Amino acid sequence: MPTVTEALQMMDYGPAPESASIAQDWLKDRSFGHFINGAFIKPGETFAVTNPATGGELAHVAQGSAEDVADAVKAARGAAKGWAKLSGGQRARHLYALARLMQKRERLFAVLESLDNGKPIRESRDIDVPLAVRHFYHHAGWAELLADEFPGMRPHGVCGQIIPWNFPLLMLAWKVAPALAAGNTVVLKPAEYTPLTALLFAELCIEAGLPKGVVNIVTGDGRTGAALVEAEVDKIAFTGSTEVGRLIRQATAGTGKALTLELGGKSPFIVFAEADLDAAVEGVVDAIWFNQGEVCCAGSRILVQEQVAETFTNRLKARMAKLRVGDPLDKSTDIGAVVHTTQLERIRGLVDQAVQQGAVLHQAPVPNGPGSFCAPMLLTDLGAANIANTEEIFGPVVTLMTFRTPGEAVELANNTRYGLAASLWTENLTTALDIASQVKAGVVWINGTNMFDANAPFGGMRESGFGREGAREGMLAYLTSDEATGKERKAPAPLSALPASASGDAVDRTRKLYIGGAQKRPDGGYSYAVDGAQIPLGGRKDIRNAVEAAHKASGWSRVTGHNRAQVLYFLAENLNARARDFAPKDEVAQAVERAFYWAAWADKYDGKVHSTTGPNVTLAIKEPFGVMGVICPEEAPLLGFVSTVLPAIAMGNRVVAVPSQANPVPALDLYQVLDTSDVPGGVVNIVTGPRAELTDTLAKHDDVAALWVFADAETCLSAERHSAGNLKPVWAESRARDWSGPAGQSRDFLRRAVQVKTVWVPYGA
What we know:
- This protein is an alpha/beta fold.
- The protein contains 27 helices and 32 strands.
- It is globular.
- One of its GO terms (molecular function) is aldehyde dehydrogenase [NAD(P)+] activity.
């Protein structure tokens, strides 16, 4: 045994094992069936759940079939009405009970999680279980306040929830707690590799007296998840890979199911020269070697400023060599076992490809013995196009590149199709907040990483998915309102180049597309006929030109809300002054009022400072998407155009709008009002033509960040399906809306015109 002096010099730790007996006693001779309608059913076909650290079997669980999923959905549907009718206070009591029971069994949950997943007991004990408890307490509070804080909203009904294997219990809490608080019932499908803590949670549901059918848990592989997506549920919430997220987007297209997706990431970890380098090195440990790197928001791409790169890299290599890889139940272990040998093989395969493409691999010693262990790895001397920089590895592998200027750091950080998180390290707060505003990520940590809280919105941009979990934004994902209550929209009549009727004008009036602040002829040179006019027939290239013009108008997104409001007030004044020039006459006065209304909101739809459990100022900033597509409604051709386009630009977006196909004249005539109202060129672009084709083009366009579609059911379905390629959020509404009433100026327009960026700013010594 070393002396105290020798131990301090070695900085080594002896074994500190946590007993597995508490979990083994619970698991002893267990074969788990599904949890449906308040009880475990007898298992049919089963599969083994194994311990990734040893390869040994832990239990057998049922392989869910489509019939099992249907039974669970039926139970949830049967319980939905009664659960939703309970008062918020009554639902809150159940959530409080679940939180308390989980606290009382936190050691069992922690040990079981480490056995099942392979993560170090320190992490499951000190992070996963306390955070899961926090979510149930927090959402019990939301249940209590629901009627006051979300007036006019109701639960979706039955929610299908599919969670991953990296944080099995925590992901359950992230999804189940807000769903129940909002009054929904749940069918949860845990990951194939890690279902055990979900099944233990099912026992808590019984003990807490949760009504039968409110929570149902069906275990199985990807086939079970696919069956749940196809089932008669009202909402799907999925956390997992981007590839599976695309399949779910396609499968739910046109079904009317609400959808939230939290998908993959390739998050930048940016270290500036003035950063505390030792703190940043420890930040890397937390960013990528936490949970074996099996974290969707892991800081897997280090970008370090050139003048400190050598010093930082040397310190990082030294720290990496000291990390302990081994038994997850040893309290001294830093990195446990990768969840499954299949994942371990994938990690090694991607690293091999990265090395073949020129990367230099630095790796800590690889442990001997059984289990799917992976030593931490650092890849240097690689380019931005290297596979290790472009693909989510989901293992303890980090890349390192250098940058010279803050602008170059932003460019490298955003050089990814993902947008889940970012971590910034600098002692200069001005630099930190400036870069945070430019990085395309749903969550930005300053001088920290992988910080989570039930009252902090979490979610991504671009191919990292859409929707938020946590806080008020997470509750909104489980609530809906009945605003579009009209008849199902019908597709407009086919286009014809033949004139429908003569205009009667002595001098012909040529109408054009409106792109980049100027009238433009359609690229194809064709037109189509509406009553009394020939209208330019826009196509794919015209959409491309409009999107390019919108991107060039990016300054609009940086203009203050106050200044945007002044422009919209001016637009309302000019529209009012020219009211007699527009038709339909009954819509003009309402359109003017609507313009004033959205102008008023331009500087008032604020972000929030959320109260989180650590010493942070946690900002939830409402950012514009950037370039949006808007398929305006056929009904109310002027009022519908104003009611959809103006809230989008009031929030700082630039818009490519497709107006009514049958009567686009009012929208096209607005160009003169836009020109004389200080609306910068490219902020509003108007392309007329075949709505279905133009909708598909906007849905497929990678540089259109969000899409609103107020159209017939077939066009809505097509838009959602085609958006799966780039995973943009699509608001598709096939029922008519009363544009002259409150539904025409709903806050939903504001909420859907922004994406929330959560910025964690630390304070204190």
